[in-house]
Amino acid sequence: MTAKILIVTGDAAESLEVLYPYQRLREEGYEVDIAAPARKKLQFVVHDFEPGFDTYTEKPGYTCQADLAFSEVDPGQYAAVVIPGGRAPEYLRNDPELRKILKSFFDADKPVAQICHGPLLTAAIGSLEGRRVTSYPALELDMQAAGASFQDQEAVVDGTLVSSRAWPDHPSWMRAFLRVLREKAPVA
């Protein structure tokens, strides 16, 4: 039986941070489902860096159909979860269904990959206390407030938790996550 991976996201997620792991994990042979607050077409965004700007810019990105609503997710059916960034985590952290889903992955010590603003979700469920993580650098204080030790690196592995700063770090992030997956949830 092929191991299944869950991606949790919503509108205004960073396009590359959803689609790159989705395609890379499928390429490895995993089955991947995308879950969101509702089964609907999601509107992603593109965050890019422009000369002279103090922060990233945001433009409309790709759209993608969510396979499942959070209320339909059975975490027991999935070997791991991916948490993309963008602005989506800012409002998704308030979703009680999603918080239950994520907590179950941590309680079962299943692999979790988070990137950019994704760690706002794991902070919301109290799962960063005492852990080493990275995130989009502007979230360093948020990570510390959640009890984590922030490390400004392309990818940080703490047990089954693999975090990364943003889409430019995809190769390091996915290499690290795939090492954890191959050990904990190999493709059948």
Automatic annotation (TrEMBL):
CDD domains: GATase1_PfpI_1. Pfam families: DJ-1_PfpI. Signal peptide: none annotated. Residues 4-178 form the DJ-1/PfpI domain. Gene3D superfamilies: 3.40.50.880. InterPro entries: C56_PfpI-like (IPR006286), Class_I_gatase-like (IPR029062), DJ-1/PfpI (IPR002818). Belongs to the peptidase C56 family. PANTHER family: DJ-1 PROTEIN, DJ-1_THIJ_PFPI FAMILY PROTEIN. This is DJ-1/PfpI family protein.
